[in-house]
Amino acid sequence: MSRRKKTFPCGHKGYGQICHRCLQETLIQEHKKQQKQEWEDTFARDPIDLRHLPTHVVVRARSVIAGLQTQNNYREFGGKRLRHNRLIVSIPITRNYRMLCRDSGSTLIPQEILSHEDYNICKPGG
Ligand SMILES: [Zn+2]
Fold it and tell me: Which residue in 1, 47, 88, 123 has the most C-beta neighbors within 10 A?
């Protein structure tokens, strides 16, 4: 067998039976696909649906949710009760997102995450 460069059906030039450029590209794509799948799988473990949110909001929300579970003090996270519904606690997640939790008496149960636009209809009362 000679070590002559050949042109693969894909148009790339190289040695051997398969195009290594395309193989590498395929592996990268597979890896990305796998990482995406792993990321999507993590949402199944969240108490509320975070799929529609930007990644940094998801990460921050998870850390607040975990923090509430261990410390159970919403004030540590800047949370406030709503003026018109004292059983609902609003906790800032990022500048643009807040998480609403329902006070069940002993624990806070995360309900949903609202963007700044969604949230303007219900301001906290302190
Ligand atoms: Zn190729």
Answer: 88
CA-CA distance, 10 to 19, in Å (whole number)? 8
Q: What is the pTM of this model?
A: 0.74
**d(CA 107, ligand 1 centre) in Å:** 57
Q: Could you tell me the distance, in angstroms and rounded to a whole number, from the CA of residue 37 to the centre of ligand 1? A: 26
What is the SS3 assignment for the chain? CCCCCEECCCCCEECCCCCHHHHHHHHHHHHHHHHHHHHHHHHHHCCCCCCCCCHHHHHHHHHHHHHHHHHCCHHHHCCEEECCCCCEEEEECCCCEEEEEEECCCCEEEEEEEEHHHHCCCCECC
47/50 Cα distance (integer angstroms)? 9
Q: How far is the CA of 97 from the centre of ligand 1 (A)?
A: 45
CA of 33 to the centre of ligand 1 (A): 20
Tens-place pLDDT, residues 33-53: 999 999 999 999 999 999 999
CA 27 / ligand 1 centre spacing (Å): 13
